[in-house]
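Hi there,

I know you've been waiting on this one. I reran it after we fixed the sequence typo, so this is the corrected version. Both the input and the resulting structure follow.
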Amino acid sequence: MTAPLAERLRPISMDDLIGQEHLTGKGSILRKAMEQGNLPSMILWGPPGVGKTTIANIIAHTLDLPFYTLSAISSGVKEIREVIEKSRQQEKAILFIDEIHRFNKSQQDALLGAVEKGTVTLIGATTENPSFEVNSALLSRCQVYVLKPLQQNDLIALLHQAIEKDEWLRNHSPQLKEVEAMIRISGGDARKLLNLLELVVQSAGANPPVIITDELVMQVAQQKIAIYDKQGEQHYDIISAFIKSIRGSDPNGAVYWLARMIAGGEEVKFIARRLVILASEDIGNANPNALLLANAAFDAVNKIGHPESRIILSQCAVYLATSPKSNASYLAIDAAIAMVNQTGDLPVPLHIRNAPTKLMKDLNYGKSYQYAHDYENNFSAQEYLPDSLKGHVFYQPGKNAREEEIRKFLQIRWRDKYGY
C-alpha cells in the first residue's frame, strides 16, 4: 500500500463514478460529448472532493489521448508553452489545470491560442466562481460544468465501494456500524472521506474485523487531523469567532481562530476577503489605513499562496484587532438603504442635477448650484438631499480620535442643518 486510498480507488470509467449524474450519467451532456469524441474545452466548477480531477482522468482514459497535468500553484507560462508544443506535435491532447482560478491574466492568456485552435482540450478545475476568476476571453472558449456537492447517500455508497474494491481494506474487514462522524468531518469531500476511512482502519490495529463507530472516528480524528468542515456548521462558527475576536480587539483570539482555519485547509482568499470587509465594517474611519492594509493583504495572499500566506494573514489580523473601532459608516449606509426602500425614488434637487444639454438648462437643471471651491474653506451650505429628507442624519461619527476630528469638521460646517 503506497498511494492513499482515495488515489487507489480513483475511477477510470463514468460507470464507476459516484455522484454528478447530471453530467456523467447515461444520456447526460458531458457523457454524450465524450462518447461522440466531440469534447469541448471546459471548466469544472465545484466544491473540493466532488470529482473534478476524477472526471478529467476518466475523459483522458476513455478517449485514449495524451494527458498533461499542471497545477496553477506551481506552474507558469513556461510550463504551459511546453505542454502546448508537445500537444502540437501529437495533434491532440488534454491539458488538465487544477485550481485554474489561481492563474494570473498572462498565464491564462498563454492558453488562448491553443484552446481556440483545438491544439489542446483544456479541462480546468476550480472551487471559485469562474466568472470572477477566469478572464472573459478564456471563459468564452470553454464550457462551464457545475459539479454538485455529494449527498449523504453518495458518501455512504463511496464507503461501501471502497470496502468492496480495495484489497488492503478487505484484508482488515471493516464494518460500518456508524458513519455520521466520518461524513460530518469530511464535509462532503470524497477524498477526505476515503482517506479518513483508511486512517481509522489503520489506527484500529491489526486484528480484523474493525468495527467503525462514531466514537472511534472522533478519537482518531482528534488525534490525527484538524476537524474543520469548510462547508458545514463549524466553518461558520469559526469564522464568526475569528471576526468577533478582531472586532473585540483581541489579537490572541484572532490568531488562534486563524490558525484553526489554516490547519483545517480553509481557502486563504476567503479569510483575506473577510478581513477586507471587517476593515471597513468594524474599523472604518477610526483608522482608514486598516482598509488599505487589508486590501494589500488580500492582493499579497493571491500572489503568495499557501503556506506563506499565513504570515500575511496573521499580520493583518493582529493589526485590525489592535486598531480603534467604528461601525459608523456601516450603520450609515444601512440607514440610507432603509430610507431608500421606504421612500422610493425621490427626485434629485434641480440645482445638483447634471445639465449637459440646452434643454436641461432651460428646465433649470443645475441652476443656482454653488461650486464649493468658489467659497471660503471650499464649502457652501447648500442642500444635497431630496426635499422631503432635509436635515436627515445618516452618518454619526464614532467615538474615537479620528472620527472626533470628523465630528469637529462637520460641526463647523453643518451644525445648524444636521445638529452635529
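Quick highlight: Strands lie at 42-45, 67-71, 93-98, 120-126, 143-146, 175-176, 211-212.

Best,
R. S.
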